[in-house]
Structure formats: C-alpha cells, structure tokens
Amino acid sequence: MEGENKPLAACAAQKVPDSRPDPAGLAIRTVGLRKKFVDKIAVRGLTLDVPRGEVFGFLGPNGAGKSTSVKMLLGLVKPTGGFAEILARPAGDVETRKRVGFLPEHFRFHEWLSGEEFLRLHCRLYGMTAPLISKRVPELLEVVGLAEHGRKRLRDYSKGMLQRIGLAQALLNNPELIFLDEPTSGLDPVGRLLVRDIIREQRRRGAAVFLNSHLLSEVEITCDRVAFIKHGEVLEVRDLRECAAGELSVTMRVANWTQDAAQALARWASAIRLEGDRLEMQVISEDFIPEIVSQLVSRGARIYQVSSRQASLEELFLRIVGTDGGL
Amino acid sequence: MRGIAVIAGLTCKEAVRRRVLAASVVLGLAFLVLYGFGMHLVLSRTSETVLRQPLIRRQIINTLLVMGMYAVNWLVVVLTILTAVDTIAGEINSGVIQAVATKPVRRWEIIVGKWIGFAVMLTGYIVLLTAGVLLEALMIAGQAPANFGRVLGLMLLESLLLLAVTFRAGASLSTLATGVAVFGLHILAFLGGWVEEFGWIARSQTAINIGVLASVFMPSESLWRRAAFDLQGPIIGGFARGPFSIGSVPSAWMVGYAAIYLLAALFFAVRRFSRRDL
Fold this sequence. Notes:
Chain A has 327 residues and is of the alpha/beta class. In chain A, 34% of the residues lie in helices and 28% in strands. In chain A, the strands form three sheets. A six-stranded mixed sheet of chain A has the order 6-7-8-3-9-10, sandwiched between helices. A four-stranded antiparallel sheet of chain A has the order 2-1-4-5, with helices on one face.
C-alpha cells in the first residue's frame, strides 16, 4: 500500500503544509496573515511558504485579496492578524527592503522625471553608490529595451514602456526577492516574452519571484509553484514542475459501474462524474491511469475506451476557485 | 538621513520641473514691480508739505510697507497651501508613493524630507519677496521697514506652520479635503484676528477672548498680526489706527505656542503617515 501511495504523495495538492520548511531558507513565510478593513475582510488567514530561488504564482479572482496580501508583505498595509516574514525578517523591515524589488500593479511613477532620472532616483533610495548607479542604470535600460528612451519623460511613455521601466526599477538592487504585480498587463507579446526571460534570469541567479498575475498562460510557463486563493485564503498550492499545469482530464467509457468502484476511484482522482457510460475525472499524473484502470477492472467494471488530455491552468483555476469570481 | 536628503531633493526638483517655482517667482516679481510703482505713485502725488512732517511721512511709508508685507503674506499663505496640498494625499491616492515607500526609506523620512524640501523653497521665496519690498522701500522712500529680521522670521514661521498643518491633513484626507481643511482653518484664524482687533477697539473682552481662542485653535494669523505690529515700529504702532494697524498684539507666548503647534502638526503628520495603509 505504501508503494501505491507514493506518486500521490509526491504530486498532491497541498492545502497547508503539515511540516513547514526551515524559515531561514524561505523568501516568504506567512502564518494566518489577516487584514480586516472597516467594512470587509480582505485577507482571512494567509498561510504560505515560498522558498528562495522559486518563481511563485499567486492566483485568484478579482477581490480575492491578492494585492492586499502583496501590500502586507511589502509593509504598505498593516496586517490585523497573523504574521509575515520576508527573507527571514519581519515584513516591512526597512533594512530587508534593500534586498527586495517591487513592480506595483498600476505602475504610477513620478511622470515629470525621465526614465533615466527615475531609475537614478530609486537607486539613491536603495542607497547605492554613484559608480554603481552609473553602471546599473544603463544596464537595466538595456535589459528592458528602453536604452533609446532613457531621456524621455515618463509622461511621454506608453503603458508598455511604463511597465518596462517599472520592471527595471524592481531589479536595480539585484534583489533576492521580487514582487511582480501583474507585470505583463500592459505589454504586447514581445514585451511578455521579455518579462518571461527576465523572470527566468532572476531564478537562474537564485532570486525568488512572487508573481501576481491574471494571465494564466504566462504563469503556467514561468512559475514553479502556484497558490490559488479566494476570499483571502489559500485554497491549494500546486507544484507545476512535477505536474506540468497540474491535472489530466481523463475520460472513459465504462460498463458495470458499482459503488465499490466509485469508492476505489476517489483515492486516485477528483471531480469524478458519470453520465451514461461516460466517466470523467481529473487525475494528478498519467502514472495513475493504469492503476485506476486496474482498480476498476478488479471491481468488476468493464472498460471500452480511455482517453486523457492535459488540463490547462485555466481549467484548474476554474475548478479550484470556481466561476463565481469570488466577489 | 540619506532618505531625507533624497526626498527633499526630489521635492525641489518636482517644483522646478512642474514650473511651480517659476510661476511663483514670476508672480512674486510681478507683485514687486506693481508694488514699487504704487509706492512711487503715492509718494509722488502726496504734497511736499505733508511729507516734510517726519511723523506723518513715516506713518505713510509705514502703512505702505505694512500693505506690501500684507500682500506678500497672503501670497505666501496661498502658495504654501496650494503647492503642498497634493504632495502626500495626491501621491497616496495615485499610488506613486508605493514605489517609494517600499524602498529602504522610513516613512518619517518621507514626510520630513518633503517638509524640508518645501521649507527650503518657501524660505527662498519669502526672503526674495520681503527683500524686494525692503529694497524698494529703501530706494523709493528712503526708509527701511522696522524690525525687518523679526518680521521675516515671523512670516517664515507662519508659512512653515501652515506647511506642517497641510502635511498633517494630507496624511489623512484627500487632496481636496486637505485644501478645504487648511484654508478653512486659516480663514477661521484670520476672522478671529479681526474679531480680536474689533474687541480691542470696542473694549469688548468677549470679542477679544473669541479672537484669542481662534488663535489657539490655529495660530497662523496671530503670527502675521505680530509681524505687522513689529513692522510699524514702537511709535507709530502705539497710536495709529487703520485696516492694517494692530491694536491687540499677540504676545511672545503666542509665537512660542505657534512654534510648538508647528512641531506638533509635523509630529502627528509623521505618526499618521507611518500608521496608515498605503
């Protein structure tokens, strides 16, 4: 039985990890983080671990508490309960911010500055030395493809250019942890590709990236793990490295379906639905399919056809979060 | 301290880039030209016989000086509130503050840095205008305002006080509400000053008390009234009466109280900004 359970344990979704990793190895650690505004609870109790060097997707419908959670982690919003640590220091710690980068969702900046001046300003806020500033600013302008536009005022930038300069601003200090709040919302496909490459480069150099995005296809490509949140709580955390987007949609044509077979199946699959002789289910890995077939046959079911396809992150999102939008 | 210097520099740069400073200086220079022309006109149209009497001549010039400083004072009050009204509330509302407040800068450094940036610019502006009035008085009338240094200090204190109050309101309210609140407070203080003055003329202790109470609530106008009294000099101030003369003189205690009020407003601005969600 132990051997049978192994793949399930390796790939299963986690609600809240039972044994949490060493806090020193974590970029983000929250326990029961909560924010109550006067008229509503924005975050009910966020419990989350994000290891250093991981690209972590933070997914949820509008109003799920994603931005409030990010703001609490950055010290912009004061939590009303629980606790949060960033790079093993309390969230909001001023010294820790030297090692953190942040691209805000609405990328509103001092529009009367030029792109170059804007980056220089933020370098100075980080306390960087003049020689380092002179090196980093042109470097970053080049990375985000704005080398030709460094002297232009931000008020003359397009939405995509503002997002790029905001991204450059978030990388000035070679941060160990980067928060990207909707980093591709204003970008064209070329810009999205650029962001994808930048995220990969950050992971390669060991930085953790906390990605808050509605573009699930982007998340699917770039993230190591994702958390689905709704009403300010983590519903599930999925490891996309082990399970691609997560689940497989499996369809079978079966006969002699019994309650016993249904009970056996519940251990291996979820979202099980039988319509006539058509049986549909979600499984975590295709390694489970032979075992499922074997379990069903041993309980007297007759199987005429089996087909499977990879569920997209979007399907997974809709299944986990639901279609009510969480509002 | 690094954060304060960066934010102060940014504040000054913004005033320059947005042409707030240029517009203010042009307005100030236009005032000085008009004022100089007006002073010249008044003195040239006044009969020689009148001007030969030293006390009357001194009173005419003094009245012109107080009028000039009164205009400078209003110009500074309006500019202080208008230029600073959006700096905190506006940046919070637009989200501009988010990229700054997530840097290794303490929130109090943001407020103090902004305040210092504005204070430096306002100081330069007040010195420019008051020095302009002083020079014109010397060149056209051959008479310097009395107690110029003290008057300059009082006007500066009034401006910095209003700046701190604007910061305190901006840390809690929207841009519009901040403007309404600070102008409202200053107008209240202004009216209180007039009530106190009428009370002094009519010998009504109740009116004087109402005026003092308004000054305690918002001491900005009492600083101007003290400055106007000092500007008149001890002899003229003692007997002359008119719309710009001061009878009920705010004491040195009131000046001290205004300084404490300024520090308290700045302290509560920092405290509110440090505690609020951005």
